[in-house]
Amino acid sequence: MKVCKGWRILAAMTLLISFGWGEASFAERGDILDYSSFDVTPFAEEGLMVQPVAMDVRQVRWGMSPEEVLRRENILSYEETLRGGLLEITVPSTSIAEIPCSILYVFSENRLSSIFCTFHSEPFRLNEDVENYRHLQVLLEEKYGASLEKEILWNNPESPYVANPQSFGMAVALEDLRYHTLWNTGNTLIALTLEGEDLRSQLTLYYRSSTLEEEETITLRETLLSEL
Question: pTM of the prediction?
Answer without folding.
Answer: 0.76
